[in-house]
Amino acid sequence: MNSILQRCTQDEATKARLKYNPWYYHFDGQKGSKIWINGREMLMMSSNDYLGLTFHPKVIEAGKQAMDKWGSSTTGSRLANGSRAYHRELEEALAAFLGKEDALVTSAGYLACMGAVATFTQKGDLILVDRNVHSSLWSGIIVSGVKVERFSHNNPSDLQDILITENRKIPKMVVVEGVYSMEGHIAPLQEIIEVCRPHNCFIVVDDAHGLGVLGDRGQGTVGYLDRTNDVDVICGSLSKSMASTGGFLAGSRAVVEYARSHSKQAIFSAAISPAQAAFARTSLEILQTNPEYRERLWENTRYYKRLLNHIGVNTWNSETPAVPIVIGSKERTYGIWKSLMEAGIFTVMSIPPAVPPGKDLLRTAVSALHSFEDLDRMAEALEKSFKKV
Ligand SMILES: Cc1ncc(COP(=O)(O)O)c(C=O)c1O
């Protein structure tokens, strides 16, 4: 291969996409747990709208008011073009919610998480990372150019084995997710923190999928496990329970001020828009004052997992509403995905490198919007698909 154009025309991932066509679907309608594709109603089983707030009247109204007052966009970075009141309001609300001194919001979770790694590390440091973390964190690691060691997924003793062989004087960062987006696993943060303590590690937790889902107030994995003071940076996305788009990182005042001055992902990228900030700010208020959304989410999650266990589905021991259906080979995963589509059920096919080799899966996620009938329908269709494919 000797040209970039050839790389594009011969790319295996693109060929797979064109052959299987299970990604980049266009919907022509959406309401509650349903979407419409070419006029056909389908059950949505893969959205990250965990609390189901994307059509909440208060969320929508807040976005409209923010647009009326501030327009559609900041059309630039906050460093250059200035912050608006809603940026600080959202940051203060997020920091208080997470139990941190300050927070910085960005226009995408990807940027926030990438920046949470890249901003704080320098050549000569060492990053220790759970090998299953999200692409945004890997991007941060690659951009930082720092030496990296991977430890096995959710395995603090493997992390310890690596840490004890390393030079104590080198500054170290440990990078994990709070809730793993594909696996639905919760990080064993208590053990990880204990292992890190003697080594003075800077700990970054991406809690995109824990926020709104875990904790008595939905404050996420770190608060749920009562480790708020032991984690240096909590980062994540506003595009899941917070029913918006955008990202954040939260930490001590010094850490967040450092990010304001050094994060390329914040400095050289346009700010989160007024409507996005208002959606997130209002969702945050709703999820704190209305626990019934989270309660409904967990009722649904328990119900769905009972159904899947009953039919012998491998859910990778998911502990949260992110529930993978592990199938193992690309061809069979595609077959089952297609059979579910024919039955009117929308899931997402995830294959390597999005998941480890041999863990090809359909990613499903429970929402407070689902009814038990929806989940029954999914389980029945899945059982039939497993028999058929
Ligand atoms: C664990 C994790 N981190 C970060 C992100 C990036 O967030 P966003 O989609 O808001 O850019 C995602 C989104 O898929 C995610 O799952």
Write a structural description:
By secondary structure, this protein is α/β, with parallel strands linked by helices. The protein folds into two domains: 14-44 and 291-388, Aspartate Aminotransferase, domain 1 (Alpha-Beta Complex); 57-289, Type I PLP-dependent aspartate aminotransferase-like (Major domain) (Aspartate Aminotransferase, domain 2), CATH 3.40.640.10. Helices cover 43% and strands 16% of the residues. It has helices spanning 4-9, 12-20, 57-70, 78-81, 85-98, 109-118, 135-144, 156-165, 189-196, 221-224, 253-262, 264-267, 274-289, 292-310, 330-342, 372-388, and strands at residues 29-31, 34-37, 40-44, 102-106, 126-130, 147-151, 172-177, 202-206, 233-237, 247-251, 322-326, 345-346, 348-350, 361-365. The strands form three sheets. The protein has a seven-stranded mixed sheet with strand order 4-10-9-8-7-5-6, sandwiched between helices. A four-stranded mixed sheet has the order 1-2-3-12. Strands 11-14-13 form a three-stranded antiparallel sheet, with helices on one face. A hairpin with a 2-residue loop joins strand 2 and strand 3. Helix 8 packs parallel to helix 9 (189-196) and helix 14 packs parallel to helix 16. It is globular. The two termini are 37 Å apart. Pyridoxal-5'-phosphate is lined by residues 108-110, 113, 134, 136, 177, 181, 206, 208-209, 237, 239, 245, 247.
